[in-house]
């Protein structure tokens, strides 16, 4: 039996419905079956939708046709930068909007400005979104997910591998700071970490030499932003483990 309070359960129902667009009744059903674990319940919900969509060959045909509109003529298993730009314009999504990162994560995009056919088809087939209009509606769900701290963390962590140069282990400092400026102000759990704090942090890193940011540092920074005092009063340069790679 779950030890969550009634208020906590009601909060998870709201989060589930906000993220998936499901009714409160469905949210309750999936959450109860998943022992009130939000991410497990969401996975179960989408897995059920995926099975239903996979049984409908029309969904796959429609997605294949939609993919063909944007694919790279020289590499038909991927959508390149030109196709990505056109696709996002048709979806009404700016490449500079944080929801673009959520879209990239959702579809398993391999690197900046690209989509891979297999993961793109699987993702959209899984939620039954086989037209641009349906995908636009799901984009709204992806945007809503950004208000959930766990979902936001998933997008944040994804951004590192997505944005780094292929074959590199670290993220260029210039790219890291632009992503921090985009993501950190929107983190629902970094409520005391202001834009002034972020600017001070970036200045501090630049003073340290502006070296490439390692994956560990990237991941740890979100915890840092979520827990640090506004005046950096509880920051321990050695103890917080914020490391940099050359």
Automatic annotation (TrEMBL):
A single GO cellular-component term on record: ubiquitin ligase complex
Keyword annotations of the record: Ubl conjugation pathway
UniProt key word Lyase: no
Key word Metal-binding present: no
Pfam families linked to this entry: Cullin_binding, UBA_4
Gene Ontology biological-process annotations: protein neddylation
Protein origin, superkingdom: Eukaryota
Boundaries of every DCUN1 domain copy: 58-246
GO MF term list: cullin family protein binding; ubiquitin conjugating enzyme binding; ubiquitin-like protein binding
Name of the protein: Defective in cullin neddylation protein
